[in-house]
């Protein structure tokens, strides 16, 4: 009963929040790919690079969406806005809490709500990587709730926010999490590369300029614990066959373990 009341509250308040988001917005929107035609609800997989991403994507989607947000220090006004919008909080370093947040999102999706997830898990402030490694929890959530994932990319200049929506990605059982997360990562990276190629005013001309941009984004939000944010980036490991070229190693009693089929 309480959950239903909150759901009605968030949906009733949503039009007002859209007006507020638009009033306080600091960038002009330039939508490069319109929202795909879709029956029903979805998960929106969005890249993350600065403090504006959450209100901007909520405004761009226009539908009421619950947002997955990591527990962290926040300005009071931001915390209040997120709670009024509808938020699922998660401790990104607590496995039990992540499992609880996933279950909450599945429940929301099964009731017809939309959910926004930043699968990179934190801000991507690298100079050349389109995306940080994605967490694959989004795949299990989509597969269990049986809803599509819509990739969304946002890129910024001093005055503009370019927004691109990708085609819905369906996760149907049985599925391989690694394959599916790679499909999502490829879709998001392709949208980002296309934005870089199409919008010549995006990006910086030198590493020095980019470092200045990173410093500016961090200073824009003093509450941000950037060291902590870096610590939650998903670790990637080089595949075994890329570390060692087995074809150049001769089998003997010292190297036999490398050739085992169960490695």
List the topology elements.
Blueprint lengths: L1 H23 L3 E6 L9 E4 L6 H9 L3 E6 L5 H10 L1 E4 L4 H16 L3 E4 L19 H9 L3 E8 L3 E6 L11 H22 L8 H14 L5 H6 L8 H4 L20
Parallel strand pairs: 1-7, 2-5, 2-6, 3-4, 3-5
Antiparallel strand pairs: 6-7
Summarize the structure in words.
This protein has 263 residues and is α/β, with parallel strands linked by helices. 43% of the residues lie in helices and 14% in strands. It has helices at 2-24, 53-61, 76-85, 95-110, 137-145, 177-198, 207-220, 226-231, 240-243; strands at 28-33, 43-46, 65-70, 87-90, 114-117, 149-156, 160-165. Residues 238-244 have low confidence and may be disordered. Helix 3 links the parallel strand 3 and strand 4 (87-90). A 7-stranded mixed sheet has the order 1-7-6-2-5-3-4, with helices on both faces. The termini are far apart. The protein has one domain (2-256): Glycerol-3-phosphate (1)-acyltransferase.
So what's the CATH class? Alpha Beta
Alpha-carbon distance between the two ends? 51 Å
* Rg (C-alpha, Å): 20 Å
Largest sheet: 7 strands, mixed
Strand line-up across the major sheet: 1-7-6-2-5-3-4
The average pLDDT is 89
The CATH topology assignment is: Glycerol-3-phosphate (1)-acyltransferase
H/I helix tally: 9
Please estimate the helix content: 40-55%
| Structural classification | alpha/beta
Number of strands: 7
- Range of strand content: 5-15%
Residue stretches low in confidence (pLDDT < 50, at least 5 long) are 238-244
Following the backbone from N to C, one meets helices and strands in this order, namely HEEHEHEHEHEEHHHH
Number of domains: 1
So what's the overall shape?
globular
CATH architecture: 3-Layer(aba) Sandwich
